[in-house]
Design brief:
GO terms for molecular function: microtubule binding. This protein is mainly α. The protein has helices spanning about 1-10, 15-35, 40-75. Helix 2 packs antiparallel against helix 3. The protein is elongated.
Length: about 80
């Protein structure tokens, strides 16, 4: 029962990984647009900064979720 409570604390790893992949693709699009249209580079940099900040948060969430999965392995064997 407590395992379910822990699962609710963070989203499933698949969901977090999918969100991160989506953000990587968005970042690639922003970088491509920036190199194609240099006149709009300054506003695009703000978007890139916001996206990278969001991605950092996703990496922390992935790390926490992986640690939870790792911590659960010995408990399942007992």
């Amino acid at each position: 029962m407590e395992v379910d409570d822990g699962s609710r604390a963070t989203p499933p790893l698949d969901a977090v990984a999918a969100a991160f992949k989506s953000q990587v693709m968005e970042l690639q699009d922003l970088v491509l647009a920036r190199s194609m249209f240099p006149a709009t580079a300054l506003p695009d940099l703000a978007n890139v900064d916001a996206l990278v900040t969001a991605m950092e948060s996703q990496v922390e969430t992935i790390s926490r979720r992986l640690q939870e999965e790792l911590d659960a392995i010995p408990k399942a064997k007992v």
